[in-house]
Amino acid sequence: MTRRTMPKRTWLTDSPVAAVVLPIIGLAVAIGLWWGATVVFSIEPYLLPSPWDVVVKFFEQPGYLLQETGTSLLETIEGFLLAIVIGVPIAVLIVRSVVLERLVYPLLLMVNSIPKVAIAPLLVIWMGFGQWPKVVMVLLMCFFPIVISTAQGMKSTPTELVELMRSLNASRVQEFFKLRLRYAMPQIFTGFKVAISLAVIGSVISEFVGATKGLGYVIQQSGASADTTLAFAAISLLSVMSIALFYALVLLEHWLLPWAQEKR
Amino acid sequence: MIRLDGVGQVFDGREGQVTALEKIDLHVRGGEFVTLIGRSGCGKSTLLRLIAGLLPPTSGAVQVAGEPVTGPRRDVSFMFQRPALLPWRSVLSNVMLPVEIDKGAGDRSKAAYRDRAHQLLELVGLQGFERRLPHELSGGMQQRVSLCRSLIRDPQVMLMDEPFSALDALTRTELSEELQRIKMELSTTIVFVTHSIEEAVVLADRVVVLTPRPGRMREVVDIDIPRPRSLGQNAHLTEVAAISGRLHALLAEKESDEVRPVDEVRSR
Ligand SMILES: Nc1ncnc2c1ncn2[C@@H]1O[C@H](COP(=O)(O)OP(=O)(O)O)[C@@H](O)[C@H]1O
Ligand SMILES: [Mg+2]
Fold this sequence. Notes:
The complex is a heterodimer of chains A (264) and B (268). Chain A has one domain (49-258): MetI-like (MetI-like fold, Orthogonal Bundle). Chain A has helices at 11-14, 16-40, 51-60, 62-96, 98-113, 116-127, 132-155, 159-167, 172-208, 215-224, 228-256. The relative contact order of chain A is 0.12. Chain A has 11 helices and no strands. Helices cover 80% and strands 0% of the residues of chain A. By secondary structure, chain B is an alpha/beta fold. Chain B folds into 2 domains: 1-75 and 155-268, Rossmann fold; 83-154, no CATH class. In chain B, the strands form 2 sheets. In chain B, strands 6-7-8-3-9-10 form a 6-stranded mixed β-sheet, with helices on both faces. A 4-stranded antiparallel β-sheet of chain B has the order 2-1-4-5. Chain B is globular and about 50 Å long. Chain B starts with a strand and ends with a helix. The interface between A and B is medium-sized, with 22 and 25 residues. The site of adenosine-5'-diphosphate has 12 residues of chain B, from β1, β2 and α1. Magnesium ion binds at residues 44-45, 161 of chain B. Chain B: It comes from Kribbella soli. Chain B: One of its GO terms (molecular function) is ATP hydrolysis activity. Chain B: Residues 2-237 form the ABC transporter domain.
């Protein structure tokens, strides 16, 4: 079909090697600047540790930090999956019924606009100190983008494809699974990608309150003992986790939806 | 094969009721190729959708193969202006879609349909492209896939809504030749909507001219030019030109009770 005019294509835009190397260069430059700043301005480590200090800190207790990372990762994934399991069907129902949409939409908006930090303590009061308040926090964080993008995607089915299915005497169920849901997948994935970063933030927020495990707890504790370097180590692990989860989704999308590759 | 008696269609539009079609009496014989021509908005698509059972008529009766039309039939296929391919499906599985949706009702095994799909794809010059995705194909190739899909269940009736109008002239010529070849092989009944006079003449046994607003049958013109005919170079240029001229006059003519030309009424 019609292609939009392309920007200039070079090795840097087209090569799969460049697709991996460029982000790494970007990251390396950022870390280099950070390092340079700590050296040039001789900043005290308790204010801003250098990248090297952070790495050393990590290797002082790698087992412990990785274990806490695992805890946060598990909460993040559980909450995220729960948000999909609940959010996608809700989006589907909203699209099918205007009445339901009008009933539920303001509610969704309201829940989404609540500052999540404010309800973290409440979740602890309601659900105790276990994993549940964390999972629920993650759920609350990523529920909204998943619902919105799924609903948007479900509404975007082209009329000629709907008419085609009708002309083939397809049942409603066939129309849904063979057409509408499939057509919505790229947009649903966009929602997933927005949600996964929020999910990580959600797990950290929930670990600030009433937790004894997880990277959020580590950050909170290191604040109490003014161990800035430890806090940075935990934050770095969070970033790595966030990036890894995001690109895992990108890979999954490439694999599941080869027909919907981004075209520029 | 297709019979419309006093068919009318009134839509409830935003600005009151729109009479899209009025008093349509049309009888299409089995194996006949009828083209429908008329200005845009005169109800051509609506007429096809009525025959396809996608829309119940507000008045009159529609019959296909001697039975009143109550919904989409499996021996009637519809082809759209746009290819309407599912982007995640390969060429082959797009062609197989009708078979897949109507499981069990098929009179052949899945394997037999698959063979048929390969055959059809070869017929339109797409052998070797079975595993490609639609976005990897040109517009003309996509429309060929769409043609194969509408042929997969050996329909008795093919309804085609301006299927070639989005294509370039050359592809269009090729496809109209392929369609005639297929038509001669399969003896399918075809109702083909177009707004191109030349296309209407070259393809049809009969051309039905519709008037706009409301869509009525202006005239039915028999085309007796021997086949195969071609859009490009034509052995019967003078005949085609003569009939085209006549159709042009019919389309341009305004009915006496019509005050303004359609295009003026439409633009707000
Ligand atoms: N679903 C609909 N609701 C309201 N009006 C419609 C609908 N479908 C078609 N129409 C109107 O009916 C008329 C005929 O439409 P259509 O059959 O699409 O014309 P054509 O295919 O000849 O261009 C137009 O005026 C159009 O606006
Ligand atoms: Mg039309």
